[in-house]
Amino acid sequence: PECGWVDESADEKPDVRVEETDAQTRVRQAKRKLDDYIDIFDPTLKAPVKEKSGEEKAGAGNLQPIVSQPLTEPASPKAARYSETRTNNLERLVDSYRQAKAELSLDDFKLLKLRIPGQGEVSLRGYFRHIKYAQTGYNGRVLFGGGLIEQRYGLGFKFRFFDRIDGKLVTLYVSPAQMQAYRSSRYISELLSHADDVKFFTVYALGTVTQSPSGKSYGLEVDDLRHLAIVLGPAKDLVEEGKAAAP
């Protein structure tokens, strides 16, 4: 005779708590050491920069989509109670990257990941590419390198990288019109005003590398200055004092 009772729980898998791997534990601990860790960076800029100030304010919510809020995507990984941080602010991402690189061990730094909508997951370290390794065209990475302000053109400027691509000079030109259209241009101008006080600047940018018509140099073109971040280098007097004190 058939048995009317069926143990439905026999086919159910027990609700076992998934334990963190050693790598996951190290990533979690590394994130806690940082002031502002970015999980998701969206480089998409949806609003034009030349809007009137009133229109910009009306669309401000679109310029900064989600900051320090959980990502509401169904494919959320194994994170338990961790709120993922999302931003499209390049300078914020650069600050997080620089702190991680400076304060974490190399092994822990290599473990950090970053999600880019449309690209997927990449290593935080791999999303930043030194200018000397850049390729012609859009690299899909934050290109960076040290250098000097070669010339000013009113509000505009030309930045010359120390390192070269294929032995050829690399520059970044920002026109006066670009600066005038950028609402944070005063902040950039303030940074550039320290050109005589610092040994160098470091530029971080999302842009396109193009070769000059003569083929003798390369240019890094940044269409939107929200995709440009400039960091002051060490002060000249501190560098000189350090050299003088060296045996």
TrEMBL record:
Put simply, this protein is called: Chromosome segregation ATPase
Sequence ranges of Basic and acidic residues compositional bias: 11-24, 48-58
- Lineage per the UniProt record: Bacteria, Pseudomonadati, Pseudomonadota, Gammaproteobacteria, Pseudomonadales
Q: Which organism is it from?
A: Pseudomonas savastanoi (Pseudomonas syringae pv. savastanoi)
* Stretches for region Disordered: 1-24, 48-84
Please give the superkingdom of this protein's source: Bacteria
